[in-house]
């Protein structure tokens, strides 16, 4: 099988590979679809559970804000006295004062509790106190009927009605009444009831805002026994209007079973549709909070997403297959030409690949990279050749011009004059320095340590100091960590010689030179030669820096006899270290001049 595949043409291999990739993609998508449906169901069930828990907490908060109202008579002793006395035993004035006090307190409680619209207290003695005026007799009568119908078992027991429509003043509300018992501490003897009328419409608004914030596709409802207390807006199936009484009687008990199972989620049929539901019971009210969504919506949503992705992938794969067949026909010729050219390069002849049509694909990029590599190899060979020529020229010029005839003549005259006058120690110093300089010049290596280059410089300055005693002072600021850094020869002495010859034209008591080395960046050093001489005019500095900056690597040093001044040292630095190295001139006319040489670190001499 493998042998047969190897014998196939390049295009057949691409086509077969594409078909296998297509089959593999279909299988992967089938697996991903099954996992996606399962994950979507799990995710939505967990999300519905969390949403139910959030809504249950919001409902507990809304109901809990009035939970301490049954302690009102224990907190305020005056209210406790009022509730224990009968109004028939009071004077009209006392009755008015107590009614006014009770109404003020109850009205304040409605202001404190945002959902409470009205608070009423009914005493066992038949007295009634309310936060508003003109409470109807029907309301009081219905309240006593409700109280008598409840089996009160504990002092903390409360009773919640389902929402019902009623007006308070001229405003209509959907009210939910919470009944509290009023009793003394230590004995279970009820002597009154406190009725808190909550605006269920404002609580429902909180549910609506939570539904909008959830961004969940499920619907939300509150169910109590066979009644729907609340249903979210735009529900997929409205439990109040879409379900018949028979369907409610069949479905609602199943909600209790789901909650009692402890799983908090399950499946049930609503209006003939199989739904995924999450059910949570609110312990305070006994209401069931239901999150539900038709199961087919989850499956369809997952399928739609997967089919969209699959359609795009199949389209891309088809286009890729067609494109692969077209491109395979265009690959052989340039690859063959590239292989032949690279084979010539392997034999030592680095030729560039030319004569092909320009391409912007991977093959064109490969050819371009090869040509760039070949060009760099050829440039490197040329650079090495030029650098070797420049170095030989430099060595020759150093032998001929660095210690120029003028300097040798003056140095020898100085030796002769001192020798004729008297025997002094300067004569051995001069001859020793001259000997070291000649030895350094004819030394075979072109690359030395910074320490050796500075020793060469000190020999030169030693002779100049004897020629011009007291004329200038020299300071060296070279950290020990940089002394073994490798440098090319003959870069310091020409710069210092320029300073002595040109900067110190005006005779002064003493001129100052400073040679320093510092770190320019992580990979570069900066060698600086500073003098406090006459300086250079700004226009000349700009002209010098522009010429130095525009000097390119691989520059062949001139044969015009100009020696190895700034331009030649700069060209040698760029040839050896690269374009980002070289000389920069800093000067202020009449004040100072500083020549900065930038070189690379970590090249051992």
From TrEMBL:
It is an enzyme of class 2 (transferase). The keyword Cell wall biogenesis/degradation does not apply. Keywords: ATP-binding, Cell membrane, Kinase, Membrane, Nucleotide-binding, Phosphoprotein, Transferase, Transmembrane, Transmembrane helix, Two-component regulatory system. It is a multi-pass membrane protein. It comes from Lacrimispora celerecrescens. It is found in: Cell membrane. Gene3D superfamilies: 6.10.340.10, Histidine kinase-like ATPase, C-terminal domain. InterPro entries: Bact_2-comp_sensor_kinase (IPR050640), HAMP_dom (IPR003660), HATPase_C_sf (IPR036890), HATPase_dom (IPR003594), His_kinase_dom (IPR005467), Sig_transdc_His_kin-like_C (IPR004358), Sig_transdc_His_kin_internal (IPR010559). This is histidine kinase. It holds the Pfam family HAMP. PROSITE patterns: HAMP, HIS_KIN. Its EC number is 2.7.13.3. SMART domains: HATPase_c. The chain crosses the membrane at residues 309-327.
């Amino acid at each position: 099988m493998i042998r047969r595949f190897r014998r196939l043409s390049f295009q057949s291999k691409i086509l077969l590979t594409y078909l296998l990739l297509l089959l593999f993609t279909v299988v992967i998508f089938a697996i991903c679809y099954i996992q996606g449906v399962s994950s979507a169901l799990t995710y939505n069930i967990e999300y519905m559970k969390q949403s139910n828990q959030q809504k249950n907490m919001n409902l507990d908060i809304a109901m809990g804000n009035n939970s301490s109202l049954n302690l009102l008579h224990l907190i305020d002793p005056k209210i406790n006295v009022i509730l224990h006395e009968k109004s028939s035993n009071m004077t009209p004035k006392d009755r008015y004062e107590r009614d006014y006090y009770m109404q003020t307190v109850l009205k304040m409680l409605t202001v404190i509790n945002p959902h409470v619209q009205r608070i009423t207290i009914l005493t066992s003695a038949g007295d009634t106190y309310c936060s508003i005026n003109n409470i109807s007799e029907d309301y009081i009568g219905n309240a006593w009927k409700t109280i008598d119908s409840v089996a009160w078992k504990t002092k903390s027991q409360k009773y919640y009605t389902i929402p019902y429509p009623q007006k308070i003043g001229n405003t209509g509300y959907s009210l939910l009444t919470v009944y509290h018992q009023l009793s003394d501490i230590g004995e279970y003897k009820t002597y009154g009831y406190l009725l808190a009328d909550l605006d269920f419409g404002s609580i429902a608004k909180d549910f609506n805002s939570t539904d909008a914030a959830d961004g969940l596709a499920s619907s939300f409802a509150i169910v109590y026994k066979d009644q729907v207390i609340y249903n979210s807006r735009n529900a997929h199936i409205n439990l109040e209007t879409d379900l018949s009484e028979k369907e409610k009687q069949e479905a609602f008990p199943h909600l209790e079973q789901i909650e009692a199972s402890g799983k908090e989620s399950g499946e049930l049929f609503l209006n003939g549709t199989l739904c995924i539901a999450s059910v949570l019971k609110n312990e305070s009210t006994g209401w069931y909070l239901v999150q539900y969504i038709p199961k087919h919506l989850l499956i369809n949503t997952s399928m739609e997403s997967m089919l969209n992705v699959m359609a795009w992938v199949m389209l891309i794969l088809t286009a890729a297959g067609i494109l692969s067949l077209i491109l395979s026909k265009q690959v052989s010729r340039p690859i063959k030409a590239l292989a032949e050219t690279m084979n010539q390069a392997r034999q030592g002849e680095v030729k560039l690949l030319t004569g092909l049509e320009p391409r912007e694909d991977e093959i064109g990029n490969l050819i371009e990279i090869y040509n760039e590599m070949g060009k760099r190899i050829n440039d490197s060979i040329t650079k090495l050749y030029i650098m070797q020529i420049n170095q030989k020229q430099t060595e020759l010029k150093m032998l001929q011009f660095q210690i120029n005839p003028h300097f040798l003549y003056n140095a020898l005259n100085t030796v002769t004059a001192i020798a004729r006058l008297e025997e002094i120690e300067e004569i051995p110093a001069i001859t020793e320095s001259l000997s070291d300089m000649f030895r350094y010049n004819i030394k075979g290596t072109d690359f030395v340590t910074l320490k050796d280059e500075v020793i060469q410089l000190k020999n030169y300055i030693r002779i100049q100091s004897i020629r011009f005693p007291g004329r200038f002072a020299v300071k060296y600021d070279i950290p020990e960590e940089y002394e073994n850094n490798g440098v090319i020869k003959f870069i310091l002495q020409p710069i210092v010689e320029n300073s002595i010859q040109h900067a110190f034209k005006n005779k002064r008591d003493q001129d100052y030179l400073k040679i320093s080395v510092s770190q320019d960046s992580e990979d570069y050093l900066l060698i600086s030669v500073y003098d406090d001489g006459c300086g250079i005019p700004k226009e000349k500095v700009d002209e010098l820096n522009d010429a130095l900056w525009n000097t390119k690597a691989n520059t062949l040093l001139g044969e015009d006899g100009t020696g190895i001044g700034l331009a030649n040292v700069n060209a040698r630095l760029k040839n050896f270290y690269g374009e980002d190295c070289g000389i920069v001139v800093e000067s202020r006319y009449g004040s100072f001049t500083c020549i900065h040489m930038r070189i690379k670190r970590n090249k051992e001499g």
